[in-house]
From TrEMBL:
This is GntR family transcriptional regulator. Residues 44-185 form the UbiC transcription regulator-associated domain. Gene3D superfamilies: Chorismate lyase-like. InterPro entries: Bact_HTH_transcr_reg, Chorismate_lyase_/UTRA_dom_sf, UTRA. It holds the Pfam family UTRA. It comes from Sphaerisporangium dianthi. SUPFAM superfamilies: Chorismate lyase-like (SSF64288).
Amino acid sequence: MELDAAAHAASEASDVPHVVVRRTLPTEPAVRASASLFVAEAERQGVRADRRMLYVGPEPASERVAEALRVQPGAEVLARRKLLLADGVPVRVATSYLRLDLFGGTPLASPGFVLPSLQAGIEALGHRFGHAEEELLARRPTPFEDETLRLSPGEWVVQIVRAGYATDGTPVHVLETVCAASRHVFPVRQVAGADEF
């Protein structure tokens, strides 16, 4: 609770307009299958959503991404990084990581957004989604995240890593979403649909 209060106070003191968006855990299947998870969630909340592609290209896999994609840490993977804004305020940096041996040289390695969606692009290349696993971690931001999200001094981020696997178990997509902590609420839904805790 102290962290929430401190983050809220820091946000109030900054020059960034106050905005709060929801990021449901786990991601609902209907939202997960949409053209944009963020846009679909924002529209449900009456928030004006915008996306900006920041980078598409190879980069070394972090330990967590490498583990999920079953490659060696530091091995090059395809990264597709975008900035997500709510009512003009930067709220998330979302990076899709894909194995270069599966997706290098394909339309997924091209700049810009994949139409109609990244998920459809992955399936068009013969990979059908089977299941996904999500992890959540609260941590201090990197200098890049601090600057890109225009965080207040001392504000933390929440990192969600969702690993998507094909029906045959092949890891095909890792999505790392870094959220400005004071600009998010994380509703938790029971898998069975019953809100019992």
